[in-house]
Amino acid sequence: MATAAVHYTAAAVTDRGRKRPSNEDAFGFSIEHGVYLVCDGMGGAAAGEVASSLAVGEVLRLLNRRAGSGAMPLPLLAEEAICAANEAIFSRAQRSHKLSGMGTTLVGLAVEERRAWVLNVGDSRCYRLRNRRLQQITLDHSLVEEQVRLGRMTRPEALRSPLRNVITRALGTHSSVTPDVFELEAEPGDLFLLCSDGLTRELSDSLIESLLDADFPLDELCARLVAAANKAGGHDNITCLLVRAE
């Protein structure tokens, strides 16, 4: 039986939120090359903005340059580009006292027809909405989430913990990094959400699911998610990137 071809559309919105003086999130995508990214920077002064924008720029540049060469499968290319971005951020932080200690999370989606790979470092997330049900694909690299997975902390305890902002893996904070990689098969109608924790700290998965389960253009869905997160407090920068398989 012939398999229907899948193509992708995307939209994104980023917002400073209601409490932060600047926006340290960054996003970027190339529909042509099948790559979609969200990063959430951290560090003093403007260092977080530098780290997140450098990560997005480096990964897209390397993938766009090497795509189509056939030399390496897309997921390996993406992983190699993330590691190169890590080296670039770490090296720049080493050269500048003002940027010392900067880093960023990264969540990315790479697609080839129906094949999809999700890569992540840190606590920015990827979800998939399929048949009106939302599923979290990534696992947070955060202290409290790892305690929950080990059974040492309950979910309500994790939400209240003063350590909930501590992430255990990031780009740029060490000389090397290993992203998690999840391989999926996309189906027509699948909707992927890449987001920073400024969204997931404010909105429950069930609320995100209900907001996405609506017949609106992707840019409007992004705007509705951001508006809901701001209404709930907007304590952090908020970024949503939606990718639909059609």
| Helix run count | 7
Rg on CA atoms, Å: 17 Å
Can you count the beta strands?
Answer: 11
SSE pattern: EEEHHEEEEEHHEEHHHE
pLDDT averaged over residues: 93
Shape: globular
- Poorly predicted ranges (pLDDT <50, ≥5 residues)? none
Percent strand: 25-35%
General description of the model:
The chain has helices at residues 47-66, 74-95, 143-149, 155-160, 197-200, 205-212, 218-231, and strands at 8-15, 25-30, 35-42, 103-104, 106-112, 115-121, 125-130, 133-136, 180-185, 191-195, 238-245. With 246 residues, the chain is of the alpha+beta class. It has one domain (8-245): 4-Layer Sandwich (Phosphatase 2c, domain 1). Strands 2, 3, 4, 5, 6 and 9 form a six-stranded antiparallel sheet that branches. β5 (106-112) and β6 form a beta hairpin. The two termini are 19 Å apart. The mean pLDDT is 93.
Brief write-up:
With 246 residues, this protein is α+β, with helices and mostly antiparallel strands. The protein has helices spanning 47-66, 74-95, 143-149, 155-160, 197-200, 205-212, 218-231, and strands at 8-15, 25-30, 35-42, 103-104, 106-112, 115-121, 125-130, 133-136, 180-185, 191-195, 238-245. The chain has a single domain (8-245), classed as Phosphatase 2c, domain 1 (4-Layer Sandwich), CATH 3.60.40.
